[in-house]
Amino acid sequence: MTRNPDTQLPMDVLRKFRMIFGSVRQHFREVEQSCGVSGSQLWILQEVASMPGLGVSELAARLAIHQSTCSQLVEKLVARGLLLKRRSAQDQRRVDLSLSAEAEGILGRAAGPAAGLLPVALMALSADTLAVLNDSLARVIEHLPSRDERWADRPLADL
């Protein structure tokens, strides 16, 4: 069966999107199986490990997610005993985060990059390539008949 040349390229691009999404989903499944936390939770643990005393606002910015989403994820990790919260000595309004011993063990067992496959792959691209990709994706989004921008502030692991 021959494909229509007018639909060939869009279908090839669609297949690439599927490959990206499928690879990302598989990675997050492997993360959860290997260490028992979601991909977004693992990324939070890694960020706190790399910068103990990090606050929720800074953490949300590092993960490029909404602060309320970050707060919810942090609270789940605190409830599981994986993150510890302490009031800052300098500013009592600020809460500093640190890892528990159990969380350190989880980071040691984690499969693959904690940030996920896609952020790592994007960081490997040149600035020029990223700019073209960013513009192209913005054009794709413009053509979506229905779009919800709130998804932009959610971790991929939670989609």
UniProtKB/TrEMBL annotation:
Any Pfam family hit: MarR_2
GO molecular function: DNA-binding transcription factor activity
GO biological process: response to stress
Gene3D superfamilies listed in its UniProt record: Winged helix-like DNA-binding domain superfamily/Winged helix DNA-binding domain (1.10.10.10)
InterPro entries xref list: HTH_MarR-typ, MarR/SlyA-like, WH-like_DNA-bd_sf, WH_DNA-bd_sf
Listed PROSITE patterns: HTH_MARR_2
Name this protein carries in UniProt: Transcriptional regulator, MarR family
Species of the source: Denitratisoma oestradiolicum
